[in-house]
Amino acid sequence: MKILIPTPLRQYADKKDAVEVKAGTVGDALRQLTTTHPELRRHLYTEDGKLRAFVNVYLNDEDIRYLQKENTPVRESDTVSIVPSIAGGGGIE
Amino acid sequence: MQPGADSILQFGDSIMLLLNNSHYAAIRAHGEETYPHESCGVLLGVFQDDARRVHEVVPCGNTRQDRPEDRYHIDPRELVRIQRRGRDRGLDIVGFYHSHPDHPARWSQTDLAEAHWIGCSYVITSVEQGKAAQTNSFLLTGSGEEDKRFVDEKIRLEPAEKASEQYGLGAR
Predict the structure, then answer these.
(1) How many CB atoms lie within 10 A of CB A93?
(2) Whose CA is closest to B91, among B61, B123, B53?
(3) Residue B34's CB: how many other CB atoms inside 10 A?
(4) Domain holding A10: CATH number?
(5) What ipTM, to 2 d.p.?
(6) Could you tell me if residue B160 is inside a domain?
(7) Which of A35, A89, B65, B86 has the highest count of CB atoms within 10 angstroms of its CB?
(8) B47 contacts in A (CB within 8 Å)?
């Protein structure tokens, strides 16, 4: 299955925009990703091992927060997308 | 990489956002449409050395219905769909745009705090009394959350034909 790497993280994944892994769950897939590319870990996870709040992980079109989080099972044909949040705004802080 | 003045010296003229007149007009028109609320959207295109070349402007919804006058947020579900559509056509997410109703076209502390797409352009348009005024672009740079910062980047408007010549995987 494929993991799509967003632009800001490609510098930590040998400039790849997608990585192929064999995994049973989303958590397995991300673990393989950060084993192959250890620099990614601190950008994806906090020090206590949780996904950073602004890092959204999608299994195909579903946010894993609303599935089984990192225990969500995956199939060979699935795509995991790592999607950092987009937000902001002007005006009074 | 040193912050401050050194960043500008390091980047200089080669960092820029390339787009055509209709992209530019679409970004600004979206801000007028949604006024007095912030507009937001995605820029699909290709990375080209130090520049980002826009091929498509994709307007998005603003999920911040609690305070849309000065906050925006794009649903990640929309981003996933836009990214997939882009990949099918050899395009990447190269940046984002949003508007500042009756507020300068410069990034705010909120804009910086909520910016995470290092390597991408953030385009901001000030919309004054319903009319698009200034459009500026900023490149988010740094190695991560701890040292991320915006640097000013030039916007270069190009003829529409140039964008279509670069279309597709070859441009990578």
Answers:
(1) 9
(2) B53
(3) 20
(4) 3.10.20.30
(5) 0.92
(6) yes
(7) A89
(8) 7
Domain span at residue B95 reads: 14-171
Query: For B100-109, what is the mean pLDDT?
Result: 96
Whether the CB of A63 is below 8 Å from some CB of chain B: the reply is yes
Q: Calculate the CA A7 to chain-centre distance.
A: 12
Q: Which domain holds residue A55?
A: 2-84
Using CB atoms, pick whichever of B87, B110, B119 lies closest to residue A88.
B110
Nearest to B73 among A11, A17, A87 (CB): A87
DSSP state of B10: H
Q: How far apart are CA B117 and CA B139, in angstroms?
A: 9
Sole residue written with tokens 């529409």: B160
When divided into structural domains, chain B yields a total of 1
Indicate which of B116, B123, B125 best probes the interface with A, i.e. most A CBs within 10 Å of its own CB: B116
Distance from C-alpha of A89 to C-alpha of B70, rounded to nearest angstrom: 5
Q: What is the pLDDT of residues A7-46, one digit of tens each?
A: 999 999 999 999 999 999 999 999 999 999 999 999 999 9
Q: Is residue B141 in some structural domain?
A: yes
- Residue of B120, B100, B117, B123 whose CA lies nearest to B34: B100
DSSP-derived letter for residue B45 is E
Any domain includes A90: no
- How many helices (H) and strands (E) chain B has is answered by 5, 8
Match 């940046």 to its residue by tokens: B95
Encode pLDDT of B146-168 as tens digits.
Answer: 999 999 999 999 887 654 444 43
> Is B8 a domain residue?
no
